[in-house]
Specification:
This protein is α/β, with parallel strands linked by helices. About 40% of the residues lie in helices and about 15% in strands. Strands 1-2-4-3-5-6-7-8 form an eight-stranded mixed sheet, sandwiched between helices. The two termini are about 20 Å apart.
Length: about 325
């Protein structure tokens, strides 16, 4: 993996620390980009609860899945572009954002089936899939269980449990949060959600200023809502089951056949993203977004939107 996922250099975090101090001193703030006014929000009932969904545009379907540290709100710039000729569906995953928070079902296979329920309710049969972080994990479970429903998949900067170099990735000390659980974790974070989340936005970005103050305040408030961190920890607690499920899905169904764009941030997963996806897909285009860490959409918005748009249009986005 790339530089933000290694600890070989003890001075590695010095530039990041200085940038954080500069950010805090400046009091800089920007607003999270809203979705276009034509987008409609609704609470889609599922067997387990409700999923908060934004829908806009017309044409072939596209499903955008977020991860931890943000919500479906992260996709507003891409949604605005794709809605010109797609029907864009942007949910908050189970337990996250404004979706309901059932006690169980945080394994990604179950959440993928819930996404199928949402698409059925919206009468969307096939989709292009665009995912980030934990959204990648739900995305794989969706594509593996419902391959006929996915035409193309752009997967952004996070591993998939049980797939490719998963065991090596787990050894990285920067990923301690994968196993941060137990009876006291919620008490430790309660009232300190912003501090906990800042760690992710700072350490996993190429430059902490790329994840602006307005976005931090917006998402910290959402994760401070009752039950939100409990649900978030459940997402991570399910990784061991996800790994077993994914290995079974791969063994039973074989590698995915749809075109896959494997996007890594230059300062995060980089080319490792393509390595992960080649273990489970036959048609993988690698792409590294220059100047980006893990938060590709926030850090390099224009480059990410252009690359995904190019790929979904059926043209090569690799470079």
């Amino acid at each position: 993996m790339r530089s933000t996922l290694t600890e070989d250099d003890p001075m590695r975090l010095l530039p990041t620390s200085l940038a954080v101090l500069t950010l805090l001193a400046s009091g800089a703030r920007a607003d999270v980009q809203p979705f276009p006014a034509a987008f409609k929000t609704s609470e889609v009932p599922t067997r387990a609860g409700t999923i908060h969904v934004r829908v806009g545009g017309s044409g072939p379907g596209v499903l955008l899945l977020h991860g931890f540290g943000d919500t479906g709100d992260m996709w507003a710039p891409l949604a605005a572009e794709l809605a010109r000729d797609h029907r864009v569906v942007v949910p908050d995953l189970r337990g996250m954002g404004l979706s309901s928070r059932p006690e169980g079902g945080y394994d990604k296979k179950t959440q993928a089936a819930e996404m199928a329920e949402v698409l059925d309710a919206l009468k969307v049969q096939k989709v292009d899939l665009v995912t980030h972080d934990i959204g990648n994990m739900v995305g794989y479970a969706f594509a593996a269980q419902f391959p006929a429903r996915v035409t193309r998949w752009a997967v952004i900067d996070a591993p998939v449990p049980g797939i490719g170099p998963w065991e090596e990735i787990l050894k990285n000390p920067l990923l301690w949060h994968f196993n941060f659980r137990g009876p006291d974790v919620e008490r430790l974070v309660a009232g300190r959600e912003r501090i906990y989340l800042d760690r992710f936005w700072n350490e996993f970005s190429a430059d902490p200023r790329g994840f602006d103050e307005g976005s931090r305040q917006h998402y910290a408030a959402l994760y401070a809502r009752p039950g939100a961190m409990h649900a978030a920890f459940n997402q991570f607690a399910a990784f061991a089951q996800d790994a077993k499920d994914n290995q079974e899905l791969l063994a039973r169904g074989g590698k995915l056949k749809m075109p896959v764009l494997a996007v890594g941030g230059e300062k995060s997963f980089g080319t490792t993203m393509a390595e992960v996806m080649r273990a489970t897909a036959t048609d993988v285009q690698p792409l590294v977004i220059a100047g980006a860490g893990h938060w590709v959409m926030e850090e390099q918005t224009a480059a990410a939107v252009k690359a995904i748009r190019t790929f979904l249009d059926g043209r090569s986005a690799s470079r």
